[in-house]
Amino acid sequence: MAEKVLMKGNEAIAEAAIRSGCRHYLGYPITPQTEIAAYMAKRMPKINGVFLQAESEISAINMVYGVAATGKRVMTSSSSPGISLKQEGISYIAGSDVPALIVNVQRGGPGLGGIQPSQSDYFQATKGGGHGDYHLIVLTPASVQEMADLTSHAFDLADKYRMPVMLLADGTIGQMMEPVELPEEKTSTVEKPWALTGTKMQREHNIINSLYLNTELLEKTNFERFERYKQIEENEVMYESFMMEDAEICVVSFGITARVSKNAIIEARRQGIKVGLIRPITVWPFPKQPILEAADKVKAFISVEMSMGQMLEDIKLACECKKPVHLCNRVGGMIPSPEQVLAKIVEVEGGKN
Amino acid sequence: MKRITLFFGHYGSGKTNIAINYALHLKKQFDKVAIADIDIVNPYFRTKDSEAELKKAGIKVISLPFANTNVDLPALPPEVYGLVQDKTTVAVMDIGGDDRGAYALGRYTPYLLEEKDYEAVFVANFYRPLTKTAEEAFEVLQEIECACGIKMTAIVNNSNIGVETTEADVKKTDAEAQKLSQIAGIPVIFTSVNESIARNSTHDYFPLTLQKKPF
Q: Number of CB pairs < 8 Å for A and B?
């Protein structure tokens, strides 16, 4: 077993990216994710990698697009307002079918909002964000260990499906420190015949582009891309099921609020309430199947989130509105307490405890 | 025993937790104790999170006016001058991480150097990825000295891997701490561990009670 180190969530992302063969980091600082850039600035020069602080987020994401076109593992990171600035570039990357990792360590919004943690970029991350028909694979870590593991997994998924993948974290997981076992060193194992690596006069030019002058071809490309998305929905869903075997109430929560929810669930169980948790690890693709299956067994769902009921909509869609879906939330940089979640569970249970 | 104890270190080395516990420790011996948080780098997990507990113990808490708010503005409170200049107060200062955090101390350096009654403590955690060796820690130590214009005078070994830390994990880092002590030419004044480890050990550790988190 590899030796454990004590890391901030943001550092774990950076180190895991390096160990996954990422040698190109292009970014622009913003609280609460600046440690990713700071770590990269220290490490990249020592391992012959590139750390580049661009003049803006827009510049950084377009540099990511450029590196991604060469098939190299590449990433950028930012926090909510900065991610909004990157959306045009992300759409271009999706429209050009090139792999890249985008990390969003969310903070409160909208607008400049605040620097404290939030999950209110859920819609932006899972429903597009930029223009056009496209998806990102969106991974939501709930521990510093998962910050590392999912970063590594994100690069593999990006290469496998030739698409941008987002790690959707929040300020708390970014800033907090936990023991972490870092992933093994590895690089991409996927062949990239499409990459811009120089023809050496031995092959036709590869072209990376998102502009289609021929409408029929653009339509065909969209259809083909969505065939790929269908495969992803079938094969890449990740979730954790906690105390769901006999649950009559199902809490659905991801990231830091899933941890708060677990504490509340343990206490509720102690009081005799049968409650469990489905923790989506991918929020796109959303774990529709386990939620639909739970809908036949539980009497209600509770969405615990640090937003105004964004994931709640996906739960309603997934359970086909078979059961009511309640909201338990804090926003603006506030984190729900285990007591608040417990109170909601008790309320939904009907006061029985 | 010096009047002012300054805690420096790589960010995430445990400065804030040690500073809070050290202030509570000093309060048992001295009447007028103050703690100043002049960490202008870190937006989360701050001295202010323990403000109620410190105030209850009778410790004066000086924190950044915008700590724990959405104002990402590194402004230092004027009371810090009072703390540096009022020689009747025993003070603990929690300095921000790395050289960037230490720059903020620079404006007080002339007073500290004139009074010559401070302990500048470098907090080391050899389980942090960028300070895993004495050499790497020494690099950070020197960067901090350059930034704030104060020489470190002591080392605290706060090596830990969070909640999973065992006493054996701490012991494994003794040699590295001694090596850092030799390179830097300053003593290791104590090794700090979680209170639960300290309680069950025969070794003389400095016990830490940690800030609670709801997750």
A: 72
From B125's Cα to the closest Cα of chain A, the distance in A is 9
Under the banding of pLDDT at 50, 70 and 90, the label for residue A1 is: very low
**A5/B70 touch (CB, cutoff 8 Å), yes or no:** no
Residues whose CB falls within 8 Å of the CB of residue B8, separated by 6 or more in sequence, listed in order: B15, B95, B101, B102, B120, B121, B122, B123, B141, B144, B148, B152
Does residue B130 sit at the A interface (CB-CB below 8 Å)? yes
- pTM over 0.90? The answer is yes
User: Which of B12, B42, B215 faces A263 most closely, judged by CB atoms?
Assistant: B215
Residue B70 at interface with chain A, using a CB cutoff of 8 Å: yes
DSSP H helices in A48-202:
57-69, 80-95, 122-126, 144-161, 171-175
Residue of B nearest to A144 (CA): B162
CATH of region A4-192+210-235, choose from 3.30.70.240, 2.30.110.10, 3.40.50.970, 3.40.30.10: 3.40.50.970
Number of H helices, E strands in chain A: 12, 14
Same fold, A4-192+210-235 and A240-349: yes
CA pair distance A24, A30, nearest whole angstrom:
19
A5 lies within 8 A of chain B by CB: yes
Average pLDDT value for residue range B60-88: 84
Q: The domain A240-349: what is its CATH number?
A: 3.40.50.920
pLDDT value, residue A353: 42
Does residue B165 surpass a pLDDT of 50?
A: yes
Which residue in B43, B127, B213 is closest to A6 by CB distance?
Answer: B127
Spell out the domains of chain B, with CATH numbers in brackets: 4-208 (3.40.50.300)
Give first-to-last CA distance, chain A, whole Å.
43
ipTM of the complex: 0.86
Q: Which helix (H) or strand (E) holds A51?
A: strand A50-53
The structural domains of chain A, with segments of one domain joined by +, span 4-192+210-235, 240-349
Bridge partners (DSSP) of residue B90 are B33
